[in-house]
Amino acid sequence: MTAPRPLIAACLVAATALAAPIAHAEPLLPVRNEAAFSRSTALPTLGEARVLDGGERAYSARLDWSNEFVNAQTLDEALLIDGETQRVTFGLRQGVAPGVELGIDVPLLFTNGGVLDGVIEGWHDLFNLPNGGRETRPRRQTNYRYTRNGQTLVDVTDSTNGIGDVELSAGFAIRDDFAFRALAKVPTGRGSRLQGGNPGGAVWFDFDPFSDSARWFGYVSGGVSYNGDADLLAGQQKKLVGLGGAGAGYRVLRRLSLVAQFNAHTPLYKGSSIDALSRAGGQLAFGGRIALGPHTVLDLGVQEDVLLSSSPDFSIHIGLGFR
Fold first, then answer.
1. What is the value of pTM for the model shown?
2. How far is CA 79 from its chain centroid?
3. What per-residue confidence (pLDDT) applies to 198?
C-alpha cells in the first residue's frame, strides 16, 4: 500500500522543520482575554522580554477563535452572552534604535453564531465539566444582551464583521531579558457592536527568568491598563485595570517547543453581581511551537477560562511569525 500524497507531503514538511536551524521566535503564545466585553479595555499580549535590535523587523498573522456562553440572572440584572468570534490580527514590529522598537497590530473581527458549540459540549462531557446551560440554547446564534433594573444596556443579536481597535506599541530594553513596554489602543472599532471603539493604553514589564537556559524559556509580567469611556456600559466600566501573567516553555526537540501560561487581570466592570462582569479574569493557555525555517515559526494553542465566565469558554490560537 502507498501513503496518500498529502500525508507524504506533511511528513516531508515535518522532517524539514525538525532538521532546520532554530528560528528566533516569540517566547510564548501571544494570547489574552478575547471576550466581547473585554474589548473596551486595553489588554496587551504579555511575555516578550526581548526588544528587537535596531533594523530588525518581525511580521505576524494570528487567528484567535473564541466561543463564549454566559446565561446569568439576578433580581435586577440579566446577562446573555452567546456567540463566537474569529479575530484575525496582522502585526508588524520594527527595531528603530538600539534597545527601542515600535509596533502596530491591526485586528479584524468576525462575530457570528459559530460552529464550536457541539465541540465544547463534547469536551465538557468528556471531562465531566459543566456546560453552564449552553446545551439548552439553540446553536449557531449570536446574542449579547445585558439588562439592569429593567433597562436594556447592551443588545447585539446580529453577526458583525469589521476592524477592531488598532494597537500601537513600543518596547524599551532594560536588559536583554527585561523590557518595559507600552501600548496605545486607537478607537477604530465600533463600540456599539462590541468591537472596542474607545481609547486606552497600558504599560507593563516583561521578564524572562530562563534567559540563561538552552531549553527553557518563559516570562513573568505585570502592569496596568487605563481606558477612556466606552460606548456601552461606560458607567460600570473600570478605568484602571491591573494585569499580569507567567508562563514557561520547553524545547523538547530542536524544532518543537511546548508551552503553558497563565494571564490574569482585575475586574473590568463594577456595580454588578454577575461573575462575567464583576469577576477578575484568568486564562490558562497551552500549546506548541514549530519552527518551519530559520526565520518562520508556527504557534498552535488553546485557551480555557480558569475563572469561569469572565473569559471565553474556549479559544483556539493559530499564529505565524516571520523575522
1. 0.87
2. 23
3. 98
**Three cell numbers, residue 48:** 516578550
Averaged over 297-318, what is the pLDDT?
Answer: 90
Task: Say which residue the cell 473564541 belongs to.
Answer: 66
Q: What are the cell numbers at 20?
A: 532546520
Q: How confident is the model over 241-297, as pLDDT tens digits?
A: 999 999 999 999 989 999 999 999 999 999 999 999 999 999 999 999 999 998 999
In three-state form (DSSP H/G/I as H, E/B as E, the rest C), the secondary structure along the chain is CCCCHHHHHHHHHHHHHHHCCCCCCCCCCCCCCCCHHHCCCCCCCCCCCCCCCCCCEEEEEEEEEEEEEEEEECCCEEEEEEEEEEEEEEEEEEEEECCEEEEEEEEEEEEECCCCHHHHHHHHHHCCCCCCCHHHCCCCCCEEEEEECCEEEEEECCCEEEECCEEEEEEEEEECCEEEEEEEEECCCCHHHCCCCCCEEEEEEEECCCCCCCCEEEEEEEEEEEECCCCCCCCCECCEEEEEEEEEEEECCCCEEEEEEEEEECCCECCCCCHHHHCCEEEEEEEEEEEEECCEEEEEEEEEECCCCCCCCEEEEEEEEEC
